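Q: My hope is that you can spare some time for a protein that puzzles me. Underneath my words sits a plain record pairing an amino acid chain with its backbone structure tokens. Those tokens are not coordinates but codes from a learned vocabulary of shapes. Thank you; the sequence and its tokens follow:
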Amino acid sequence: MTENDFWSLIGEAPSDPYTNEVLFSFDSYEKQYARIKAHLLKCTGAEIISFHNILCAKIKSLFLPKIAEVFLVSTPELLPSSRDELYISNDGFIDFRAWIVSLGQKHYDLFLHFQTEREVLCYDLDPNITWREDLVYIALSVCQDLGIDIELDYYVDKSSEDLYAGIELEQLSQKYPLLIG
């Protein structure tokens, strides 16, 4: 599977033509998952592994401080003065990055290269809907359905670097006032 094949299979999340807000829902997640899984069920083991490896590489490429910051400010529990220490689970951050990939190449590229918070204001960053654990494990599900016994690599972090070290909530409030407010 090529990278172009991967992005064609992922598709693009639509945007509201009037507000430019990116439109997605649990219903659209389920439809996307079903479409991808149906396609992968027709693929060879090598193609399934290739899809999985490209997905993990895309998730890994989003292991960036600015993505961690956006993830932190999207979490309602992190209102000013509500916590002494910032912490988000590794699984939650992986699922958030998988959600970004699931929106399609155009949206993935936007998150990868954004410079200001205004560029990501068109996304509803509610943590109750910005996770895609199902996508992370879709290749495993397909292999199980096909009776293929396989070991898949799920290493999706660039290093053991703590992206949250040195981040203070007050700094995030100043850096992302529109996302927090």
Observations:
- The CA atoms of residues 20 and 122 lie 6 Å apart.
- Residues 3-180 form one domain.
- The radius of gyration is 17 Å.
